[in-house]
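Risk register update: the risk that structure generation would not scale has been downgraded. Supporting records follow, first protein first.
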Amino acid sequence: MANQRPKLREADVLRTVRDYLKVHRIFHFRMNVGAMKVDKRFVYFGMVGAPDIFAVYRGQVFAFECKAPGGEQTLGQRAFKVEFEAAGGIYVIVRSVEDVDLALRAGF
């Protein structure tokens, strides 16, 4: 099975999407969500369910949730999507740069 391609990871999708947005000079930022221990307590950051990347393109706000093939949203991500779209944002699950390109073209 020497010809088998390596499995695409979510981190790979995230990196290529960020590279695409940077090359096309589209304003964006990475959203980190999690917790870390500081001294004897945990500090939480980000919003539960927030997408991997926020971008603004031609006046529209996009939320890009990067997923590897077969990857699924968490319950928190589904809840965030509902609220974000209700507020007028465009939420997209992306598995490739092509998904981002299609969303940006269709989003305005």
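Supporting record for the second protein:
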Amino acid sequence: MLLCSSLINFWRIDNFREIVVILISCLFLFTIKGIGQVSLLADSIEATTGQTVSIPIKVTGFKDIFSMQFSINWDSTVLDFKEVNGFTEELPQFGKDGIGDGDVDSGQLIVVWFDNSLRGINLEDSTALLILQFQVIGEEGSKSAIRFSDSPALIEIVDATSTILETVSIEGQVAVPDMSTATTYLQAQNGMRLFQNHPNPFRKNTTIKTSFEEAELVLFTITDAQGKVVYKKQFQSSNGINHISLDKHLFPASGIYQYTLQGRNYQLSKQMIFLP
């Protein structure tokens, strides 16, 4: 508003109507947000009590960004925080120094990054910014959301023009199924279902069943235990039951892998085991 006063004094404006127009214009200028949009995404998985799980924190729409800040929250009675790793190397000076003073014992973590060059950084969609490591301590039937929030630190992602961008948060979940009533699938809010691969564990081939209420463009990815993407494919699903067939040659080594199906407003993940 100091700029507005300076403009009024500079032009010696004493017409009340013109002053009001300038003040309204300045107010609009200083409160408008950019039309750009960035999405923060966390995976949804099932796990058993005592299991260590990895939750990649991914981003889309990360274009010409020079700073970001957001909070991650979870239920500390279900998930015991262990560490953060897997920081993307595409963000300069981004690492454990960018993890702020949240209260992990209470289920809070702050992520902060700033590009000293002020040039703005671009990341491919679905890039994992970092990976959260938890040990599951909840009992069967419990679950914890992985949420992005303004507590304890506000969500602010700023581009190279110093514009605060709109942020869309797609929360994840770690669910500990009740084995007496457990289903073999996860379901998104739009009705899409992601089933457990069969067979599992497997040595040669395995198949994943999915079910869609309506056809849509989706992204299917497979990551290893360190969060590295070993397979990625975008495809147009059809209404109803769909099958994804996987061959052993897609997997570089035996171990636990996570497969994820990401649509426009959801992201579901399950784990599978590839045997030698």
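The chain is about 10% helix and 45% strand. On this basis the risk owner (M.S.) recommends closing the item.
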